[in-house]
Amino acid sequence: MLFGGILVMGCAFVSAAVTLRVDGPTEAIAVQRDLPAGHTLAAADLRFVKASTDAELIAAGRAASVIGRTLTVPMVAGALLVDRNVGEPAYPMPGQAIIGVAVKPGQYPPELAAGDRVAVVAVPGDAATSDVKVEPTTIVAVVTRVSQPDQPQNPAVVTLLLARTYAEKITAPAAQGLVSLMQISPEEP
Fold first, then answer.
1. Strands (E), the chain
2. Distance of alpha carbon 152 from alpha carbon 100, whole angstroms
């Protein structure tokens, strides 16, 4: 009986040691800065970070194999590379669109950043000065880039990823400056 207990304890110890050794952190590749889809990766774009073992992560030892390859999707600084992030650009996906929206201070949160979810709200303008008839509309989108103006009086340009059907509804009001952006929770549908 004592021998059986010792055997079970020994097996448990060996199992735990093997599990910790196999599942320990590994060195993976992350991007140094925000990069757009279609960007050709250079050594200066990459950095090595400790990450939990994941079969999809590109290990640091494979860095040479990704240099010179193209990003398929936009990446934010610090994002870990996986195999499906490099290859032929597939962005935006079918049924999606990317639009740029020029917004002035007060039409968007100043701390807005790539990866944030926003509600794009089309607001009716002054009928006397606008050629576009705008129905109040709210559409959810993901921010892919924020380009701050070089002069404070100029608008910022926020690049948005959204369903193509919604993009078609919002481009005319956006071109007239009749949209505002509200940052929303990542969990909101």
1. 26-31, 46-51, 96-103, 117-122, 137-147, 156-163, 179-184
2. 19
Judge if pTM exceeds 0.85: no
* Tokens 């860095």, located at residue: 63
DSSP result, 10-47 = HHHHHHHHHHHHHSS-EEEEEESS-B-TTPBP-GGGEE
Per-residue pLDDT of the chain (189 residues; tens, 9 = 90+): 544 444 344 444 444 444 444 556 789 999 999 888 888 899 999 999 998 877 788 998 999 989 998 888 888 889 999 988 888 766 788 899 999 999 998 999 989 988 899 999 988 766 545 565 666 678 899 998 899 888 878 899 999 999 999 998 888 888 888 899 999 988 776
